[in-house]
Amino acid sequence: MADPLRKLQDDALKLPVRARARLAETLIASLDGEPDVAADRLWLEEAERRLAELDSAKVGSVPAADVFDKASQATR
Hints:
This protein is mostly helical and 76 residues long. The chain has one domain (3-74). Helix content is 74%, strand content 0%. The protein has helices spanning 3-13, 17-31, 37-55, 64-74.
């Protein structure tokens, strides 16, 4: 690793946990390139559709604990 990169890494590792997490999130996001506005719009529409189904009682919800238990059992 180049010396400036090593120094940057050493300095980053001295940051508090939350600051390191924000830095990591920013660095990872920078690898993704430009956001896909169309995909973001479609995900928002899907979330709104699902919320409307919940609000109208067209569908029901499942407690998170049940979902995690089922997922855990499926991976055994």
